[in-house]
Amino acid sequence: xxxxxxxxxxxxxxxxxxxxxxxxxxxxxxxxxxxxxxxxxxxxxxxxxxxxxxxxxxxxxxxxxxxxxxxxxxxxxxxxxxxxxxxxxxxxxxxxxxxxxxxxxxxxxxxxxxxxxxxxxxxxxxxxxxxxxxxxxxxxxxxxxxxxxxxxxxxxxxxxxxxxxxxxxxxxxxxxxxxxxxxxxxxxxxxxxxxxxxxxxxxxxxxxxxxxxxxxxxxxxxxxxxxxxxxxxxxxxxxxxxxxxxxxxxxxxxxxxxxxxxxxxxxxxxxxxxxxxxxxxxxxxxxxxxxxxxxxxxxxxxxxxxxxxxxxxxxxxxxxxxxxxxxxxxxxxxxxxxxxxxxxxxxxxxxxxxxxxxxxxxxxxxxxxxxxxxxxxxxxxxxxxxxxxxxxxxxxxxxxxxxxxxxxxxxxxxxxxxxxxxxxxxx
Length: 427
Ligand code: LLP
What we know:
Blueprint: E1 4-6, E2 12-14, E3 17-18, H1 19-26, E4 30-34, H2 35-49, E5 53-58, H3 65-73, E6 77-80, H4 83-91, E7 99-101, H5 108-117, E8 121-124, H6 127-139, E9 144-151, E10 173-174, H7 179-189, E11 193-199, H8 210-230, E12 236-238, H9 256-273, E13 280-283, H10 287-290, E14 294-306, E15 310-315, H11 324-328, E16 335-336, E17 345-351, E18 360-368, E19 376-380, E20 401-405, E21 408-413, H12 418-424
Parallel strand pairs: 4-20, 5-6, 5-13, 6-7, 7-8, 8-9, 9-10, 9-11, 11-12, 12-13, 15-17
Antiparallel strand pairs: 1-2, 2-3, 4-14, 14-15, 14-19, 16-19, 17-18, 20-21
Helix pairs in contact: 2-9, 5-6, 7-8, 8-9
Ligand LLP binds at residues 58, 60-61, 79, 102, 162, 201, 204-205, 240-243, 284-288, 324, 328, 384-385.
């Protein structure tokens, strides 16, 4: 990763600062984010997609006001999926027209706020929502730009809980059985809505472009049907996010320019076949932008050697700052970072301090046999869906996020305190 490097003395540094110094200053556990790397990834996506496409960063992966500012400065748009994310985006100065609002069960209040703010698009997820958004927009005297989210029936090869385009799940409106065509029919009739196009998101942590290919083909086919039935060519398709990153050395993700090229080729070819003009494409990468930009730093506590099995290395965090291993059986790697060691590798399992045996951060990893309490270890690629899915389980205090750039470190989300916990407990 670009994020963590060793200097000439062999000490690990991030953004020009020694990791051990970061631990001293900010404590552990903590997430450290390489701002320059985040910005470089934003630029790589934006440049890869050029002027023919829009990149919406998926805020659910990780969102803070600093991140919103970076996105704004790097020319990206932002996808939010709750009132909370919308508030964060607007309060950090993201122009409403660069925001897309997602969700399968947006509340009336959330929709009202989004329409009032003038968000660039709302992604409609159900028949009820088509009516709801149209009604609210009309009441507010607006014509709200929208996309309709469809499920294209693709089985993405990823964990069941993060695959989203097969038909038996809660998101979107099925292409099958003419459901999506009916949704379009209704949306086109409603004065409060300006139908921009069709949205499809097939899942997450995907490496194989085949799923996107099928998805794009089916969405373009629907655009053709819409043209035939209504005489309108919808100007946009959004192919969602989901592009995989390397969590361990076994993963081999594509670069943004390869993805952009592949998607553009598929859409152009399908549109030629359907004799449609090529719509504007948008994509919504979250993990691919923020995942590799951060790592979690932990301090080693208890170490238990289980004869003939493995060594359990307990750290000062766990499933409350990274639920992904427990939830998705996710793979991570780990490295000793506070010193170098030439000791033999020992098979280790990095576990947290929670009252649950599934509280595992890294299932199987080799750490040096002389590992000792007090050592610092780092788990890379925790920028996406770790802080954003963090919990207070066992009244753990959620760790801070520290942005490191050019020799300077700055807290962008502070560490939670016991006062924060008690402040919510008003009973
Ligand atoms: N667009 C939509 C409509 C989505 O639902 C998602 C993710 C994205 C974009 C961004 O996907 P990405 O590029 O980040 O894969 N918590 C899970 C992932 C759930 C993703 C939900 N939606 C995890 O930790 O792997």
